[in-house]
């Protein structure tokens, strides 16, 4: 046996490496060591700074400015990675590449952060005043606002930090004022009173993107209505129900209306019905009276927008608080009555008529919080006899993403942008190709927002029109609106004067506003008072100017002339309209051209199961946790420090236990001290690999860690090859010299150069198409499969031989051999160098680290950051060679599979033989003989493998038969899952596909085992022979398709079950495929396959049952079914023969029920489910027992107090929606106030003086007369009432009630309203 050669020690740095960042690479890849100091070096060298005067072609992108309040999350990490890839690639490709950094002032988010900070000190912004508060915000910004920039640097983002901007700095503020004034003068900006999204918690209008839409579905696990925590309330508020009440009609009668927002009825000004609704045609044009405003008449109007199927088909109209109602009000000239103050209380309807307050019914609600008023209105309407009840109702609830408040549509005077023409121009820019959207499927989203009429023409179902953009916000932090309210001193003003657009002067500064005011009011400045609007602009307004304001607009700067328009805009698809479209619209209007040529949209990052990341779900992944690794204990500590609601904290802790039981990226190699963390490069590569053109990235931290291992693979390859660089006498060949020498080199050298060209084309092609995933895949394959797994292994013998030859005395033969080996070494270094350049845009730190350690060529750059990006050379591509190489690799895989199957150790050398009737295959083996021998550890290579004397056939066969038995058992268990009735229609496709993959995979394993068994059986039978036994059995002979065909045929042989008429007893069960002995079938088939290929083969016994593999084992179902049945029969016979055996009566299943009489001590609503009660019940046990019941649907709460109940006590204690329950209330009636007071007790035959705790009779015949009782049954609990019209009730398969007129056999549990 050949001894393993000694690996050479790391040599001293060669002269070619002198002056470089040198030193050995170390034993392990440690991301922290590799990444340390690199970014600072790049910054000092100025590699990221772009020169506007450079003659190079320009490539510019601007960063989507992260919030100044922000900390790095995976969304930031994703865009930082993808944009940095583009910029680094273009910089290396000869462009003057500029990536402009910036941060957004984030009006609402920043103000909320600082307000919370002040609140901890007991101070509010109103106590400070506007100027002092803004000083606090600026102070906070200077102290904490740079955090996100430092984190982007950590990620390796090659931004030009000399050009860092802030959207609220002086230059950007000047740009905002200029844009506002120009657009106002062109009548694109106007002031009007309209409905806006209002947050009562923030007391501000908010944009559509800051509204989270919560879809409330009536789920059995989460029934409606559902509780929500609303800011300002110390109790949950329930949503997801519809309420009915009636309005009295003038002249008599009433009209029942439906609403999901009862609190707004105080602002109702009409009732609307559909004009075609026959139920209400007689009411058209009539009036109803408001119960709380006796003088308010509500016209009954007909409008086609009303849905006849919604509630009663008649809806209340509140124009001031609903967009649809507002539009109906406009059509029917209805007044708009505001109901709420800015902070969400009921307004004082009598502020101008205080003398009416005392007698007005509505006065009782003034000053209430809006959802407290909802409860008060419900009670008041009930007292008036006008309330008609409520029921669950699915709906969409709008929440403020910042404050979690419920959005209230409110009528407010605001500033708006007229969107119609601007939106059309932006839509046309995409339609004509001026702007390209990648991926193109998002074009329809673009048109849906900006030109929905065009989609309707194409036949798509699109609703709505382009709505004007509300740009004012009631905040202090932000760009104050450059509009001034002008009045003459002492002039009396009407109440709504601020809504008059003629009262506003829009100007760049106060002096310009005064000039406008004097001209418009016709009086001197001394008589005029100016007050600048207190509101600020929507953050998206300044962000819409970002692509040109970053270059100094409105000034005509050198940067603006050189770098605008930009090349591309890369961002998430979720802000395609909110930011991207607005940039295009404002650039077309203010600059006369589009701001960028391409819009590159990346996916959204979610957790590995596809759920949106949120702190309360416990699935938020901090990039730092991935980069550095984090233990489970640390993750939990971080959650506990996040000040979550206790229920959210418990949910988050449970989620991390499930998803990260070992922590995040902690590694699994205790011998590697550098294991924790993916490193920055590992995370960047993972994000690029995930970034296919899709809507979601389901990020799995374990997969991210796998890319850290990929980086370690590259590190290891470089570390290996650098060991072999001679300390002297070696000169790395240039690419031109290698190309000239390549024809004389071996096939593996020509192959790796061909694969390098293919990888280069694939990487560039992926970058060009913004398909980073395909580029990452090409890089991964080049390094992992081609360079490391194949080429590196093939050159190892050459490098070992080079070390041996170099130690010999000088001679022409030695020098010639060294020159050949040095060419191979140079070629490997060239491929490594070019691979590092290809990978640099994705993994910049590791590639720089290794590039600095490679021997240099004349003209090489000092850093890979500015090195030339590879270009594919078609002359070096050889498709025919690649095909031959692939066939050689197939041989290699077969040889290694033989080694693995036979249990040969890595250091055991064997003779391998190749036998084929195809001369090309033999020639192929000869061409790659050197590589095959090196990689398969063969000492000779001929036609097949000679194992005699190397392995023990009996031992190997024993192991193989055991493995085959395990595989057969597992395969049979999966097969049984596929034979349920309606498998193809009821089982989800994903599950069926998964089962199919499992079955096919195990069949392939089975074929491979049979292949090895056949050859070992032949080896065993030929043990007496001296000649090698060529294994003429191949895996192809045992085709998976043949096994599959026989298997699926057996499965499909299920007989048709006869239909049984209703009411007749079912026939005895017929054997079906469910009873099929899959193990026996598979084992017999295997034995047949072996016997057909191995003459003289004797079938072996099955390990589990002692069967012969060739024998039939019947239709016994599972493998031990027959044995169990036989054993049971023997036991029964023995028991019957025993003289001591006494006959036992058949057990009555109802005798197991522990039913007792109880008395309700207290009852209250379940805190999370309005349809459940939590009852404390006296069962005579001392302490009361707590039981959750479903009686809330049928018994009023007040009637249950003190009621008699029947409790099933021997259920396991459980939680029902978070509340402990020990038992189940089966029936209840008031004990003294109802005609059926004793119905339950009578039906269950209790003693006459039954006291709490009395055990009830549970068998025999019950009274013949059926009774009507109310029951509360858990949805998932036994017993179950069937939907059969015969009203059969069963318990454990035994009929309880046969109806509708049959006798009650056992009346322990009775269906409601048994007639």
From TrEMBL:
Residues 1131-1144 have a biased composition (Low complexity). Keywords: Aminoacyl-tRNA synthetase, ATP-binding, Ligase, Nucleotide-binding, Protein biosynthesis, RNA-binding, tRNA-binding. SUPFAM superfamilies: Anticodon-binding domain of a subclass of class I aminoacyl-tRNA synthetases (SSF47323), Nucleic acid-binding proteins (SSF50249), Nucleotidylyl transferase (SSF52374), ValRS/IleRS/LeuRS editing domain (SSF50677). InterPro entries: aa-tRNA-synth_I_CS (IPR001412), aa-tRNA-synth_Ia (IPR002300), Anticodon_Ia_Val (IPR033705), M/V/L/I-tRNA-synth_anticd-bd (IPR013155), NA-bd_OB-fold (IPR012340), Rossmann-like_a/b/a_fold (IPR014729), tRNA-bd_dom (IPR002547), tRNAsynth_Ia_anticodon-bd (IPR009080). Its EC number is 6.1.1.9. The keyword Phosphoprotein does not apply. Residues 1149-1257 form the TRNA-binding domain. It comes from the Eukaryota. It catalyses: tRNA(Met) + L-methionine + ATP = L-methionyl-tRNA(Met) + AMP + diphosphate. Residues 1117-1130 have a biased composition (Basic and acidic residues). GO terms for molecular function: ligase activity. Residues 1-32, 1050-1073, 1094-1147 are annotated as: Disordered. Pfam families: Anticodon_1, tRNA-synt_1, tRNA_bind. The keyword Transmembrane helix does not apply. Belongs to the class-I aminoacyl-tRNA synthetase family. PANTHER family: VALINE--TRNA LIGASE, VALYL-TRNA SYNTHETASES. This is valine--tRNA ligase.
């Amino acid at each position: 046996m050949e001894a393993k050669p000694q690996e050479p020690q790391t040599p001293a740095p060669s002269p070619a490496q002198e002056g470089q960042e040198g030193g050995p690479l170390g034993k392990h890849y440690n991301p922290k060591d590799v990444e340390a100091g690199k970014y600072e070096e790049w910054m000092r060298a100025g590699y990221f700074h772009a020169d506007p005067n450079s003659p190079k072609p320009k490539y510019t992108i601007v960063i989507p400015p992260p919030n100044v309040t922000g900390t790095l999350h995976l969304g930031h990490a994703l865009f930082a990675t993808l944009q940095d890839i583009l910029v680094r690639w273009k910089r290396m490709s000869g462009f003057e590449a500029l990536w402009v950094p910036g941060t957004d002032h984030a009006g609402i988010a920043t103000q909320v952060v600082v307000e919370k900070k002040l609140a901890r000190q007991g101070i509010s912004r109103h106590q400070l005043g506007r100027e002092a508060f803004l000083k606090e915000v600026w102070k906070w910004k200077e102290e904490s606002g740079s955090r996100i920039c430092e984190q982007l640097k950590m990620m390796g983002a090659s931004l030009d930090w000399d050009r860092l901007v802030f959207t609220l700095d002086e230059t950007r503020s000047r740009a905002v004022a200029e844009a506002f004034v120009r657009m106002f003068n062109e009548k694109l900006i106007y002031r009007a009173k309209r409905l806006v999204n209002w947050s009562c918690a923030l007391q501000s209008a908010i944009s559509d993107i800051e509204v989270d839409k919560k879809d409330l579905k009536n789920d059995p696990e989460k029934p409606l209505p559902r509780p929500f925590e609303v800011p300002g309330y110390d109790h949950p508020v329930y949503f997801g129900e519809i309420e009915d009440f009636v309005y009295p009609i003038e002249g008599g009668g009433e009209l029942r209306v439906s609403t999901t927002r009862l609190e707004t009825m105080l602002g109702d000004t009409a009732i609307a019905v559909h004009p075609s609704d026959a139920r209400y045609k007689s009411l058209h044009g009539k009036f109803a009276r408001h119960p709380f405003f006796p003088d308010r008449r509500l016209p009954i109007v007909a409008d086609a927008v009303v849905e006849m199927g919604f509630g009663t088909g008649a809806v209340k109209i509140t124009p001031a608080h609903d967009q649809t109602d507002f539009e109906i009000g406009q059509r029917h000239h209805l007044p708009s009555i505001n109901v709420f103050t800015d902070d969400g209380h009921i307004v004082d309807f009598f502020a101008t008529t205080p003398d009416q307050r005392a007698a007005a019914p509505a006065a009782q609600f003034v000053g209430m919080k809006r959802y407290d008023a909802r409860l008060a209105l419900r009670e008041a309407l009930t007292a008036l006899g006008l309330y008609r009840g409520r029921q669950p109702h699915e709906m969409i609830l709008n929440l403020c993403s910042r404050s979690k408040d419920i959005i209230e549509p409110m009528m407010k005077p605001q500033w708006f942008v007229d969107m119609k023409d601007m939106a059309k121009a932006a839509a046309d820019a995409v339609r004509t190709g001026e702007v390209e959207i990648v991926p193109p499927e998002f074009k329809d989203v673009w048109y849906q927002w900006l030109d929905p009429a065009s989609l309707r023409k194409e036949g798509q179902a699109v609703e709505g029109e382009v709505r004007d953009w509300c740009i004012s916000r009631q905040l202090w932090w932000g760009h104050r609106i450059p509009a001034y309210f002008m009045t003459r001193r002492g002039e009396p003003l009407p109440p709504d004067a601020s809504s008059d657009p003629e009262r506003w002067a829009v100007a760049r500064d106060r002096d310009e506003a005064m000039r406008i005011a004097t001209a418009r009011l016709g009086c001197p400045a001394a008589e005029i008072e100016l007050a600048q609007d207190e509101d600020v602009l929507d953050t998206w307004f300044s962000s819409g100017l970002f692509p040109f304001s970053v270059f100094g607009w409105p000034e005509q700067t050198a940067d603006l002339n050189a770098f605008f328009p930009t090349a591309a805009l890369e961002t998430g698809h979720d802000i395609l309209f909110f930011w991207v479209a607005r940039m295009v619209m404002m650039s077309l209007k203010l600059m006369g051209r589009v701001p960028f040529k391409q819009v590159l949209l990346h996916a959204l990052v979610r957790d590995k199961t596809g759920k949106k990341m949120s702190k309360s779900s416990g699935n938020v992944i901090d990039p730092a946790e991935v980069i550095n690794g984090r233990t489970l204990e640390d993750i939990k500590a971080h959650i506990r420090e996040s000040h979550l609601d206790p229920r959210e904290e418990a949910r988050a802790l449970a989620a991390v236990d499930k998803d990260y039981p070992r922590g995040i990226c902690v590694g699994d190699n205790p011998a590697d001290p550098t294991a924790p963390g993916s490193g920055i490069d590992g995370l960047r590569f993972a994000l690029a690999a995930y970034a296919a053109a899709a809507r979601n990235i389901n990020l799995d931290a374990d997969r991210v860690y796998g890319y850290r291992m990929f980086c370690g693979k590259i590190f290891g390859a470089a570390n290996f090859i650098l060991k072999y660089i001679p300390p002297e006498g070696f000169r790395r060949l240039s690419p031109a010299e290698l190309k000239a020498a390549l024809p004389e080199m071996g096939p593996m050298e020509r192959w790796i150069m061909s694969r390098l060209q293919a990888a280069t084309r694939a990487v560039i092609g992926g970058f060009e198409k913004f398909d980073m995933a395909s580029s990452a895949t090409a890089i991964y394959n080049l390094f992992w499969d081609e360079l490391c797994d194949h080429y590196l292994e093939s050159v190892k013998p050459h490098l070992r031989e080079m070390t041996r030859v170099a130690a010999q005395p000088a001679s022409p033969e030695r020098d010639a051999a060294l020159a050949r080996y040095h060419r191979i070494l140079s070629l490997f270094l060239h491929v490594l160098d070019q691979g590092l350049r290809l990978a640099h845009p994705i993994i910049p730190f590791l590639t720089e680290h290794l590039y600095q350690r490679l021997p240099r060529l004349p003209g090489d750059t000092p850093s890979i950051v500015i090195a030339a990006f590879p270009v594919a050379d078609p002359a070096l591509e050889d498709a025919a060679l690649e095909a031959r190489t692939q066939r050689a690799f197939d041989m290699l895989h077969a040889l290694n599979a033989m080694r693995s199957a036979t249990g040969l150790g890595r250091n055991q050398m064997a003779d391998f033989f190749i036998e084929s009737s195809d001369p090309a295959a033999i020639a192929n083996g000869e061409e790659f003989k050197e590589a095959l021998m090196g990689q398969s550890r063969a000492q000779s290579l001929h036609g097949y493998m000679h194992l005699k004397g190397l392995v023990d056939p009996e031992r190997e066969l024993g192991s193989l038969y055991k493995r085959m038995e395990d595989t057969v058992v597992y395969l049979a268990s999966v097969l049984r899952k596929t034979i349920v009735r309606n498998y193809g229609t009821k089982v989800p496709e994903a599950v069926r596909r998964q089962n199919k993959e499992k079955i096919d995979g195990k069949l392939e394993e089975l074929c491979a085992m049979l292949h090895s068994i056949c050859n070992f059986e032949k080896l065993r039978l030929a043990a007496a022979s001296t000649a090698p036994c060529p294994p003429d059995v191949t895996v192809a002979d045992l085709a998976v398709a043949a096994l599959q065909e026989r298997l699926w045929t057996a499965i499909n042989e299920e007989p048709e079950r006869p239909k049984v008429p209703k009411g007749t007893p079912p026939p005895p069960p017929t054997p079906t495929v469910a009873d099929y002995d899959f193990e026996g079938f598979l084992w017999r088939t295997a034995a047949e396959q072996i016997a057909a290929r191995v003459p003289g083969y004797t079938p072996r016994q099955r390990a589990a049952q002692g069967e012969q593999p060739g024998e039939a084992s019947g239709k016994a179902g599972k493998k031990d079914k027959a044995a169990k049945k036989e054993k049971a029969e023997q036991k029964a016979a023995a028991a019957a023969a025993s003289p001591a055996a006494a006959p036992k009566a058949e057990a009555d299943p109802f005798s197991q029920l522990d039913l007792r009489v109880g008395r309700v001590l207290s009852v209250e609503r379940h805190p999370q489910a309005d349809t459940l009660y939590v009852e404390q019940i006296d069962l005579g046990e001392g302490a009361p027992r707590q039981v959750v019941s479903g009686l809330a649907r049928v018994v009023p709460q007040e009637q249950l107090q003190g009621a008699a109940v029947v409790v099933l006590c021997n259920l396991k204690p459980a939680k029902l929606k978070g509340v402990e329950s020990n038992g189940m209330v089966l029936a209840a009636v008031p004990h003294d106030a109802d005609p059926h007071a004793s119905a339950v007790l009578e039906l269950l035959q209790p003693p006459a003086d039954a006291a709490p705790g009395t055990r009830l009779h549970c068998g025999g015949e019950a009274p013949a007369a059926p009774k009507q009782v109310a029951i509360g049954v858990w949805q998932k609990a036994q017993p179950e009432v069937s939907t059969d019209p015969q009203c059969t009730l069963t318990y454990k398969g035994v009929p309880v009630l046969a109806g509708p007129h049959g006798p009650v056999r056992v009346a322990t549990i009775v269906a409601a309203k048994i007639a």
